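Chain particulars:
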Amino acid sequence: MRKLHEARNLAVDATHYTLFTAGHTDVYGLFQPRASEESVRLPKGVLSAAHCFAGRVGNQAPNGALILSVSSDGARRDGQVYVVVLEDGIPAVDSLTTEMEARNALGSEDRPIWSDAPDLYPNCEVVGFDWLADGVGKGARVAPIPMNPWPLVTMALLAAIGCAAWFSVRESRRAEAFREQARAVAAADPVPKYLAALEMQSATMSADRSDLLAIVERMFDDPVRVPGWRMKSRVCSAGARRCESVWLRQGGTYDELVSARGQETLQWVGHDGNPVPALDSARTVSDIAIRRSPLRGATHRLPTFKQAIDEGGSLFQVWKTADLSIDLQPPRLWPRVDAVPAQFDHPRAILSGAITLSDVPGPFILEALRAAPEWISWETVSADIGDGDAAGRLRFKATGNYYVSSR
């Protein structure tokens, strides 16, 4: 079949074939309709005359020739003869042609001839189509050329590969579009961003109250007067982890202040960004250690704002009765994240607001800080030191943040 299709490649319009075998040689005779016969179907049972002739005389006359007149309705058709020429037992010429072309096909070689025209070929064997028909064998039948499956298989395989590639690319693009959509949804989803920020910042949301109380207690032990200087105010910040004291000069010098406050760092005090220091005032700074931790521990749930007011409202009223000033700012989402809206709501969301306690007499500040609800984180304690008796000249102010649950 491979050889047949190779032979067919030489006559791409061929539709039928016959196979002739001579020795170890296979020869394919191909039927190719003429332009005037393209619409004419080859009848079933058609035989190859050249095959019949070669089968009859090919062994005894491998270079023989057959020349027969082609008649129509018993009358000879002028100039039409059928010629078969064998070369080594194999048909080399198989044609319906003119008498002149038939003689040319015989060539110069002396060939044994079989013909029905002894007058033209005196030494021929006189035969006719009946004699030729006696040589009919099974192999002389002209059969349709079977379809070569490999081009179709190749085309089908290429089509399958193309479809698979197209499907793969389509699915890959769909998957990528789905992943891109998922990334867009994830990027637009505020929950992961907020929870990540909450996880990161909640570990340091609250200043340790016991550390802050210890620092405030030490304020009472510090002298407010040193040679040539008087303390005007002190501010201790848990966020900055330092205490700053402002001093007013009463005839002293920087050297005397440094000598008296050797454990603190001296800083000049200027006016409105002026690099020239105000010679009658100075600032000393000292570092403090305040631990930070999650508010009330990670295992406790914060109260809602209403629950917080229900819990601490009475205490706040007592403070106001004692002439303390308390200010609570409305709570807002904490921590604030750029991609998270301020109205974000989640079971784990936390709200925070500022709280300020001012005008606190000196002896009462420790009690006020200690008694405050646990959902308050005090961040800054400041003291203004005025003139007068010891009780009257100390006024404290505490600022911080309160934290409540959004639900």
